[in-house]
Amino acid sequence: MANADIRVSVIGGGLAGLMTTIKIAEQGHRVDLFSLVPVRRSHSVCAQGGINGAVNTKGEGDSPLVHFDDTIYGGDFLANQPPVRAMCEMAPAIIYMFDRMGVPFSRTAEGLIDFRRFGGTKHHRTAFAGASTGQQLLYALDEQVRRFEVEGLVTKYEWWEFLSAVLDDNQVCRGLTAMNLRTLEVKAFPSDAIVMATGGVGSIFGKSTNSVICTGSAQAALYQQGVKYANGEFIQVHPTAIPGEDKLRLMSESARGEGGRVWVPKKQGDERDPSSIPESERWYFLEEKYPAYGNLVPRDIATREIFQACLDGYGVGGGNMVYLDLTHIPAETLDRKLGAILEIYEKFVGDDPRHTPMKIFPGMHYTMGGIWVDYDQMTNVPGVFAVGECDYSIHGANRLGANSLLSCIYAGIVTGKAAVNHATGAGRGETLNGLHEAELKRQVAINEKLKNQRGPENAYSLHEEMGKWMTDHVTVVRYNKKLEETDAKLQELIERFDGIDINEKIYWATQALPHARQLYNMLLLARAITLGALNRNESRGAHYKPDFPARNDEQFLKTTIATYSREGPEFSYEPVDISQIKPRPRKYDVDKKAS
Amino acid sequence: MADTVRLKIKRQDGPDTSARWEEFEVPHRKGENLLTCLMDIQKNPVTADGKPTTPVVWESNCLEEVCGACTMVINGRVRQGCTALVDKIEQPIKVEPMTKFPVVRDLMVDRSRMFESLKKVHAWIDIDGTHDLGPGPRVAPDVQQTRYVLSTCMTCGCCLEACPQINPRSQFIGAAALNQVRLFNEHPSGALHKDVRLEAIMDDGGISDCGNAQNCVQVCPKNIPLTDSIAALYRETTWYGLFSWLKR
Predict the structure, then answer these.
(1) Residues of A in contact with B14 (CB under 8 A)
(2) Structural domain boundaries, residue B45
(3) Which of A90, A111, A205, B107 has an alpha carbon within 20 to 30 A of B141's alpha carbon?
(4) Mind listing the pLDDT tens digit for each residue in B1-41?
(5) Among this protein's residues, is A299 annotated catalytic?
(6) Partners of residue B59 in chain A, C-beta under 8 Å
């Protein structure tokens, strides 16, 4: 018995969640949209550089197939190829869709959309809106969703946090539980399908370029309910972040795309002002080592080189920073093409990057791994879908710049259709009696325990400790011994979690209790990430082990899958679909040869 | 003397309870912003005179001044907490919630009226659908550049907070929503529904309630030319009023 009057819930109001919402509403179905914040403030606003699509308006012979090859190659062949190809083929139409929504993409003299170059490609393929493309794309979708809200098809639940899926006896999803972040009321929402669009896991690393809400808590909650988590060990560290006390702020790859040059003084510990260091005494190490791509090598390579230069004592003033220099480009050009990101630097550091080289260092940036999904974006639990950064599907071992916004939209478009299909055919049956109430009770009990628990630990301090361990040992360079120690530390933190006191007596709009819940979930997911890294004895994309410096296709050209158990994550592996492009060594010191 | 930051924070437990001030002293770190201090209080929620208290509640997300969440009144000026660099402001740093929106708790306020206003002014382009219909209309680079600046509005609320016309006795919609009307009316397809937006701001609480104090443009963190937008809309609504009268 098919459902005519279906209801789908989307969790997360960033690009992927909003695109899914629009696609479902366009088919005339109702959507409940849950978000931790007003959706217009979602983390997608932070994406600066742009969105890829091989529109080939520059006459460079670009095509979706070249884009496909760049993406697979950039991802070090770990991504299943069919969905990546489908995404690249859809990309030009996606850019045109945003164009029609009124996104102020930067223009050529002829009034066409302008494209810029990004890392890991030789083509001008990235459409951009000033230097806040993510913000502009998110606003466009937010506006279209508001239209459907006015029409009554979309109901927003802003300030609600996803807690769990409601699963029936056959492990089929029948809804979700969520918590109102003002009243702390926990409620069950029956739903014929749920779509997770909950972004990356930056908060697990303490400081990252991610927004505050990117905790991975929702993914981790589902993981504990049997949803598979794939390739967790693949975490992108962005080469150019601005170190800060509260977060690492991104300096967009477009700074390099527009001609920014990375260098350090040739003399170690040189304390001169950068402008007084002559050209001959500067070491442009990326240009020297990678003549074909220069400063535009992919992120993992730039990250390791910067990290290594600092480790070898060449960092600015002997510290952990290198110069990213734009001062050779006219200020007017910089303002037009990079205005917003330069303002960010100015505002947060106090120097003017038009006249002083910026100081940057790598920072945790993107979660390539995530919830396992099939080619319809559905997880192993029927009725639970995942889209965007929280799913693992597109970017393999390393994401190319300006592919993230694209992957969000692609996944949303695919899921809009797939979720409706599933929901329509799912049937509701008689089996749902008491199901939602039982899950609700379980979630309320977790809150009550945290409220009444007293002990010496502070959740924010535990969080800081987890972040430090994860950043130190599970980012740029990984050693098995350190990974083992990190896992032991995580287990210790999980034990200490029982000793936390949330220091709160007033439960209205408190952040303490939701944070404590998130922290527990993050700790469990951190173990899946760390142990996934420990098990993968090779180097591939963003995952780099000095003790295993080469890619090992024979043993590790496979997807890591973590499944939750009370004793800890259990790992299995799945072959990668390499049916279209045969793996070849990934090198950026010479031009990439297309397959 | 220990290197610390002194803060005076206005606390309020809920929408209907009274406010109180609490003082804090937290470690100082070079280059930090105000939110880092609030995070320190979370780790050790104790006032300057040693009394245990609850962690301060505030709203924040991107910490890069692009989401608009962490707007608050700092030393008497409305701004984002993430860009309030401690080394550049006077201590004790006085932190209060915005006054033109209902307080939820502590520094967190309810800005939903701003999102409701976006519905009222028809702040979207009426596309036929998200399926592939080819590119949109061509746009001249200078039009794009004008629109881009208007489109960086992050609904933070600074312009409403600073506006004397926003008060309990007025319905004024505020500069942010008016600016959206201009943003969409200047797009070639958006202009097809220009009239709907103009009519929306010719109602009560619309453009004629602007008192031209020009505070909005001074506090806008994105330097959006809000008063230019309002002036442009004055002209448009005047013409529209005249034209639609002639049409009758």
Answers:
(1) 506, 508-509
(2) 4-109
(3) A90
(4) 469 999 999 999 999 999 999 999 999 998 899 999 999 99
(5) yes
(6) 37
